[in-house]
Structures are given as C-alpha cells and as structure tokens.
Design brief:
- By secondary structure, the chain is mainly alpha-helical.
- It folds into two domains: 60 residues, lambda repressor-like DNA-binding domains (434 Repressor (Amino-terminal Domain)), CATH 1.10.260.40; 176 residues.
- The protein has ten helices and no strands.
- Helix 5 runs antiparallel to helix 10, helix 6 runs antiparallel to helix 7 and helix 8 runs antiparallel to helix 9.
- The longest helix is centred in the C-terminal third of the chain and has 39 residues.
- The protein starts with 5 loop residues before the first helix and ends with a helix.
C-alpha cells in the first residue's frame, strides 16, 4: 500500500479525473468529508476498509493504491532515520549556537580561542541542513533542496573565509543572507500537512534575511538572536515530520 502523502495525492488525482468534489466522494463512501480532506492532504493514513470504500467509489482496483516503488518501505524507513539523526544534530547545533554565535557586540563568530565551538558549528550546520535537503527531496521541492545545499556548502566556506580575509567573509555572509530568502520561500512552498508550521518558519526566515545581507555588525547580532526561534521551529518541523511518518509506519504494520 502507498504511504502518505502519495496515497492522498493519488486519491485526489483520481477524484479530480472523475470530476467529483470531496463532498461527492464523501457521500458515495459514507465517509465524513473532513476525513476525506485529511486523507488527501496526507494528514492521516486511512484504514484498509476506508481505502476499499474509496476505491469502489472511484471505480478503481484496490491494487492501484499500491506503491510503484518496490523499495518504498526501505526509503520510508531511511527517511525516518535521517530525520531522527539530523534532529538530534540540530539540537546540538542550537545549544552550540549560544557559545559560538556573536550574540553580543564583543563576541566574534568563529573565535580562534573557541575553535571547538567553531568546528562543532560547521559540522552541525552541514548535517542539520542535510535533513532539510532530504525533506525537500521527499516533497519534491527543488527550491528548498537548492537552498539547503547552498547552506551545506556556504557554512564551511564562511568558516574558512574568516581565517583568510574579513572582506571575503562579509561577502559570503551577505550571499548566505540572500540564500535565506530562497530557503524561506522554499519552506513556504513545501506541500506538507504541516503547512502552517512550514509557512510560519519560512516567514521568519524571510524576516531574518536582511539582517545578514547588510554588512552591519549590529544587524548581524540581531539576526543571530532571531536565528534561535528559527532553529526551534526547524526542529519542530523535523520532529513532527518524524512523528507523522512513524505513525504511518505503525498503522501500515497494524493493517498488514
């Protein structure tokens, strides 16, 4: 059986081809229209009996809701594992941020006397954004995938530039600030059942972007403080996507 959100998309596409509304399908299946909406959005995974009723109403064979990917369950399990790992790394990144980020005027990011925090920041940045790179691939979001990749490359480059030339580091920081715009828009375009959370996180990222684009120290400090709630929201996305995926896996197992 297909996993969510693929199953919901398949039902929605089949319903639209029939020229049916969600209310029409609801009446044919004798299923609450709100339940149909939640299934199509990928918010819930329906029981086998519910899928059978929907298939009959849409004149479809039940096997049309089976996954076309023979390795789908493996990919699902792998995605869940990556989410858990990158979420834990993200927690480390957030805690380390208080020690490494220039949250106060007298503090310099990637301070040579705090090289351990600096290295931890670079490593956790790469793996944390790798989590969103994988999320982008799962939801087929090319913009979020690009922006996540850029942060994975730009983080280490900024670290290296601080040891070479201040002008170069300021330039890279401004470019990373511009990438914040792409990342924010990418989050807002993610077609997940956690739409409100993705949009809220994306809007906050867009608000933060100017504080890093402009090469003004005070603005950079404000941006670093604003990154704290941003990282918390990003961790919430990872946790809720992980929990949602785990619930679907448990339901699939119980219905098998």
């Amino acid at each position: 059986m297909m996993d969510q959100p693929e199953l919901g998309k398949k039902i929605c596409e089949s319903r639209n081809r029939k020229g049916m509304t969600q209310k029409d399908l609801s009446e044919l299946c004798h299923i609450d229209v709100r339940t149909i909406q939640r299934i199509e959005s990928g918010e819930v995974f329906p029981r086998a009996s519910t899928i059978r009723l929907i298939a009959e109403a849409l004149d479809l064979e039940l096997n049309e809701f089976n996954s076309n990917d023979p390795h789908g369950s493996v990919n699902q399990e792998s995605f869940r594992g990556i989410l858990l790992a990158t979420m834990l790394i993200g927690l480390i990144h957030l805690v380390n941020w208080f020690f490494n980020a220039p949250l106060f005027p007298t503090f310099k990011m990637f301070n040579p006397y705090n090289w351990i925090y600096s290295i931890v920041d670079v490593v956790t940045t790469v793996f944390f954004y790798y989590g969103f790179y994988v999320i982008a691939g799962y939801f087929k979001n090319s913009l979020l995938k690009f922006a996540s990749s850029f942060f994975m490359i730009g983080g280490p480059l900024y670290f290296i530039s601080t040891t070479i030339n201040d002008v170069l580091s300021i330039l890279i920081l401004s470019i990373l600030g511009i990438n914040c715009i792409f990342f924010g828009i990418g989050l807002m375009k993610t077609k997940s059942s956690l739409l409100t959370l993705y949009k809220s996180t994306g809007i906050l990222q867009l608000l933060i972007a100017p504080f890093f684009i402009l090469p003004i120290g005070v603005l950079n400090i404000v941006g670093c403080w604003m990154n704290i709630p941003l990282y918390i929201l990003m961790l919430c996305i990872m946790f809720l996507e992980y929990r949602k995926l785990r619930q679907v896996t448990v339901k699939n197992y119980n219905q098998a």
